[in-house]
Design a protein that fits this description.
The chain has about 110 residues and is of the alpha+beta class. It contains five helices and four strands; from the N terminus they run βαββααβαα. Strands 1-2-3-4 form a four-stranded mixed beta sheet.
Length: about 110
């Protein structure tokens, strides 16, 4: 399925993002009109986020953390595009990204 990919790190301060330890927002526009806003973290950023939560005394001093929609190895167009392509080959993004929170009764 064809899609258009907008990446925050290409639009906001390009070239000054840590591709290995950072987070960003992305947008995926599908050819059928569906639009997704997705929060993406690198694997390394999870540890950074945990440390920040603990230092800021957030979420019961880092006892838990609310995850992003998608983890990737690096914040690059190539990595994210390949990931989205693979997810789409498996089904709809709303079912692939976080199926545990979808109410199956509706």
């Amino acid at each position: 399925m064809d899609f258009k990919l907008w990446l925050e790190f290409e639009e906001v301060d390009p070239g000054n993002w840590d591709t290995k330890n950072e987070f960003a927002n992305i947008q995926v526009d599908l050819e059928d009109g569906r639009h997704y806003g997705i929060n993406v973290w690198t694997y390394a950023y999870l540890q950074t986020a945990i440390q920040k939560e603990q230092a800021d005394s957030e979420n019961v001093n880092g006892l838990y953390i609310t995850p992003p929609d998608l983890f990737v190895s690096e914040l690059t167009r190539t990595c994210i595009q390949k990931g989205i392509e693979d997810l789409l080959s498996k089904g709809d993004l709303e079912e692939q990204l976080n199926p545990s929170i979808i109410d199956k009764k509706h």
